[in-house]
Amino acid sequence: MKRPETADRRVAVFDLDGTLADTSADLIAAANATFAEAGRPGPLDPLADRALAFAGGRAMLREGFVRLDGAAEPAQVDRLYPRLLALYGQGLRVETELYQGAEAALGSLGAAGWTLAVCTNKPHALAARLLEALGLGGRFAALLGADSLDVRKPDPRHLLETVARAGGSAGRAVLVGDTTTDREAARGAGMPCVLVGFGPEGAAVARLEPEAVLEHYDALPALLDRLLPPGGGGWSGRRESNPRL
Question: CA 167 to CA 60: how far, in whole Å?
Fold first, then answer.
């Protein structure tokens, strides 16, 4: 398959946690194991705290300390954070699975000439290991993690650099994510944003006014073609007339 010229190349950038895969159970297990090693009972619930898991390791530790002690000291969080990452790295694919239809959608996009990339606030090494474990190693032209630059989402520079390393330009790129972090990054970069409606917030992501809310990955290839049609030209700046697809 001939690779599109840079000017015509369309880049689909994906968040990872909560967008391509439900990683919440393994993240919460790592946080609870970290507290357990410190002699504290596991304060987080794998179902009730799914959205918290996608806010990141430090967010889980802060909330855990608030529940246990009524407050979280930054020094406590900083001390335990490296151990949380280590424990998560030991069990990052125990419960984690791709969302239904994600792998097929990536295949369809690639066959249609889209260049694929990942921009995640997960540390780069862990993100690369997880994508490999999920069978997606080699699918993406660029992968930037939380530690790839000196900024990260919602700073738009994280997203713009991901697009650039994938060989594209902001005017022909779209971000698929799941949270306000992704929405704000895309807005700052001047790119359309699709938020998944099957992540931890469900239908509530519509309040963030993305260009579209994706209900199932089966609808993604056609949706992205409408936002950024093949053959050149940038994003129109208009939301989908039916933003829930």
Answer: 35
- Can you say how many angstroms the Cα of residue 215 is from the centroid of all Cα atoms in its chain? 16
Of the candidates 8, 15, 150, 155, the residue annotated as catalytic is 15
DSSP 239: P
pLDDT tens string for the chain (245 positions)? Answer: 445 556 679 999 999 999 999 999 999 999 999 999 999 988 999 999 999 999 999 999 999 999 999 999 999 999 999 999 999 999 999 999 999 999 999 999 999 999 999 999 999 999 999 999 999 999 999 999 999 999 999 999 999 999 999 999 999 999 999 999 999 999 999 999 999 999 878 889 999 999 999 999 999 999 999 999 998 777 767 665 555 55
Whether 15 is catalytic is yes
Three-class HEC string of 138-201? CCCCEEECCCCCCCCCCCHHHHHHHHHHCCCCHHHEEEEECCHHHHHHHHHHCCCEEEECCCCC
